[in-house]
Amino acid sequence: MSGNIGWDDEIVLRKRSDHAKVTRSSADINAARRAGAVVSTDRKVTTNAGHVGEDFRRIAKVAETDEIIAPKAVSMDVGKAIAKARLEKKLSQKELGVLVNEKQTVINDYEAGRAVPNQQILGKLERSLGIKLRGKDIGSPLTFGKK
User: Fold this and answer.
1) What is the CA angle 76-63-38, rounded to 5?
2) d(CA 103, CA 110)
3) For 34-90, how does the pLDDT look when each residue is reduced to its tens digit (9 = 90+)?
4) Rounded to whole angstroms, how far apart are CA atoms 9 and 116?
5) Residue 143 DSSP one-character state
6) Residue in 75, 85, 94 with CA at minimum distance from that of residue 126
7) CA-to-CA distance for 43 and 129, rounded, in angstroms?
8) How far apart are CA 42 and CA 45, in angstroms?
9) Which of 9, 25, 59, 85 has the most crowded Cβ, counting Cβ within 10 A?
10) Rounded to whole angstroms, how far apart are CA atoms 75 and 112?
11) pLDDT above 90: residue 92
12) Which pLDDT tens digit goes with each residue over 104-137?
């Protein structure tokens, strides 16, 4: 080292370059604001709207608003089709629940039209009852393969 450095001189060992930092937490943003840094917040926008399904659009709508939006429930057509097929097979709700490895309350919610649609549960119910519960022709016999 050279001899002309005094006690009051500031020594910089490694200078950090001033580059933009991307952060996702509000704590980091608030810390930068307290430190006096210039803070810019941008919202990421999805431009691939053609590939976004109905559920994702609904979730985005819920995320943008502050109001409470109730989740989508299964239609009564699905509930009536489940009840009709279950009674034709002479099964109780509890027996059907055991058959598809779900609770009796889940079967009751689907039949009453209160359940939030779950594709796995609907698939298990379709296979065990032998009827279609999704798409067109709800309640029609389930066919496998080509028609």
Assistant:
1) 175
2) 11
3) 888 877 777 666 555 555 566 667 677 777 777 776 777 888 899 999 999 999 999
4) 67
5) -
6) 85
7) 46
8) 9
9) 85
10) 9
11) yes
12) 999 999 999 888 888 999 999 999 999 999 888 8
